[in-house]
Amino acid sequence: MSDSRQQLRALTRHLMANEPDEIRALRTGAVPLHPGSYGQYFTTWDLANGILRDYSMNVYQLVRMAADERLSVNNVMTVMQTWDPIYSKYLGYSGFPALERHAERISRCPVTDRATLVAVLSELAEYVNRLTAWSHHYFPWSLGAGYRYQAAEGAVAPRPDAPAVPQAQGDPSRRVPVRLAWEPLGIEVVAELATDLNERLCADFMAALPFTVLQDHAVVSGRSMYAWAPLVSVAPTPVTERICDAPTGRLRFSQATGNKLVIQYGTTTETLSVPVLGMVSEGDLDSIDKVGHAVWDSTFHTKESIWLTAELAG
After folding, report:
1. Of 50, 85, 193, 270, which is least packed with CB atoms within 10 Å of its CB?
2. Is the model's pTM score more than 0.90?
3. Which domains does the chain have, with CATH numbers?
4. 124 Cα distance to chain centroid
């Protein structure tokens, strides 16, 4: 088990700044087994991209189960052995043999110690998250440009119903400043972490600082951009907020969808509730609007890399 942890850590560290060979092969039609009916590989790419992201979210839930002392280690392993092959073996066929190999090794290894299980599953989750980040970045989202909603010119997009519970206010004096910078854009902003609202989540986030990761854009929820952070947090999050209700400048942290740092720079419509992480300073809202548009162009069209660096300020 320790070998798997070390190997997964090394793989993940390499992928922080380098596109995985698996993603390059998938997007260029170089997967060894040539999966894809009638000699084409777009459907293989499409399915693998979606299944990889789905798998990453399920692996995270497995980490959360392993950390839950109400559940036995044996039960968690049984759950993994039941559903994991459905994902990992398909992904192995689609060009991810290392992922399949490590998942199978972990699933078959007899583990009785909870801390060990949480640690190795966290390493697997971080590795799969990093693969997912690169897969999202290179997927040809621009193919969707021709599929637009029919609406009258100037019409306002429909909004979800108002939330039933008002957002907690917290104590701003307890918040911690962080610096967010994007290269090659040459733009940086200051934000505050809401340690008064989600103290343990913010502590996990600060423990991972500083880091530099690929910045990408949401493709469903609206004007939000996100980056898969190099951590796996199972911290309790007492304060959440619907994405559609969040103000411009909101920082949130989506544990369940890949442990992503999310920055909202405009209107959104998704109703999912996500933990509050903080807020970009009011004077920097114009700057994140510029970043958001550049990141959309990168994710949807050019595929040029934009790198986010997050670190404590001061």
Report:
1. 50
2. yes
3. 2-140 (no CATH), 172-312 (2.40.100.20)
4. 14
